[in-house]
Amino acid sequence: MPSAIVATELSKTYDVKVRDPGIKGALAALARPRYRQVRAVDNVSFAIERGDAVAFLGPNGAGKTTTLKMLTGLLFPTAGQAQVAGYDPWSGGNPFRQRIAFVLGNKQQLLWDLPPEETFRLNRAIYGVSLADYTTRRAELVELLLLGDLIDKPARQLSLGERMKCELAAALLHQPEVLFLDEPTLGLDLEAQQTIRTFLGEYRRRHGATILLTSHYMADVTALASRVLIINRGRLLYDGELSELVARIAPIKRIELVLSETVSRARLEEYGTVAHYAPPRATLEVPRETATVASTRLLTDLDVADLSIQDPPIEEVIRIAFGETEQDAEEDTVRTDVRRAPP
Amino acid sequence: MSPASSRTPFATFRDQYAELMRSAFLVDLQYRASIAIWLIWGVTEPIISLGIWWSIAAGGAVDGYTREGFARYFFGVALVNQATLSWDAWNIDRWIREGEMNHRLTRPIAPIHEAIADNVAYKTPTATIILTMWIIASLFWPAVRIPFEPGRWSLAIIAIVLAAAIRFLNGYATGLLAFWTTRATALVELQFGLSLFLSGRIAPLSLLPPRVAHVAEYLWFPYVLSFPVEILTGAVTTSEQYLRGFAGQAIWLAIWLALYLVVWTRGRRHYGAVGG
Prior knowledge:
Chain A has 343 residues and is an alpha/beta fold.
């Protein structure tokens, strides 16, 4: 079976108007517009198999949304190709649109003045879903997303979290094969975030939908995707398992301790680097491969009430990853410059 | 996974239109107070024009128009104008500016169908209200009565539908220029300004200076208002006048349809290139 999403050397270049600040700058730009080319997405390739969930990570302006817009057919690439659900997003037309859903966390498609139920009805007709399928799917979505009587209240009276849940339901009534989610939990409270994460995981398991999502919340990523794509300045910098990334970027484990006796910081330093010391609690950082040995020693030598071994927080891993890749990028630039220098 | 049902494309299309019109109508109901105000404004403008011409015609007919003739004409203007209004450019402009166009472009139906359904859902009830007001007025004021001629009324209905289609495509295609510029609605305003004179909105076209009337003949404006109104009031009588009027409507409908298709296809491509 072909992959659900294939991006081949996708690039997107924008011409951005350059303008000096102030009235003088505005007038100058009017008389003689200057443009600067910005590579929003630069030669990005990846493939996602059917039924997989992949997280697209990167700082603001890294090119995540631009890539999603190319894969959904809203933007066409400056170079490269894409195949989504077996279609070229740009020329796939309505049969392609029937097979995807694109949910933008900061935009809404719900009819603002009407209850979400009305948007559901409308989407049923627009996507040509039969009444029987509609009834079953609507009931399933109401159950999984805990919508209850929310769907009878005008959308404008719903909270952000309630609205997002209804947005998802509206976007899934046609049971798309591929689901693109851009920041689906943006600005939501913890409970709503959790409901949406649980829902997406369950929905994927039940229907084998492929999910590509962007998020700033690491909990979304760890809950939903085992594989991550990291993009920065338009370039794909990492494509692989989240756990591998953690192992590669941060080859340490954290041992969290609750001690029953008072142990000095200096004593703890014998077992590893003390990252945090607030008796009776302490956190040690030890090399990944010696984590088990260190834990055994701690349990033997000291009076330990509780001990757990953890990966460093994913936020930190990503931060380190971005830091490293930015350094790489700068080195690349330097190298290119050197190559371009006259002999 | 087969998202499309086994129904025929026509049945799906009919279903899409039914639901689009239903939701547009329900949204309109939420804004009934605003709609009432727009309706009052829609009627006020022709009534003001009528007031002015009424006093001008105090001394006798102006170029064939008696006081009663003006009354019938401006009642006709109120009805036809309500049935042919065009506001889509403002929606398109907002959708593109605020990123609401994106979800419309990822649905398996072109956005123009939503606009058509929206127009039908709004104009059918509101034009019916104006027609009812006209009928009630004619009970008390013989001047605004028009003779019962089913043939003429049927032709008037066809002319109003064609006028609505031309004005809709004109406004929609101009609005789509928002894919390139932030001034699309200004262009619509400019056309609106011209249409006040050239479509017969503030005076019957026969009262315009001959040169202006001549210019109007080469544009679509007379066909979107003056022609259907004059069928209603009885000013269009000969088959040659009918033929010229309907031919003009057919030509301008074809032109604006072609322009819409060009602007839509290119605009979509431009949007794809530069983003929203």
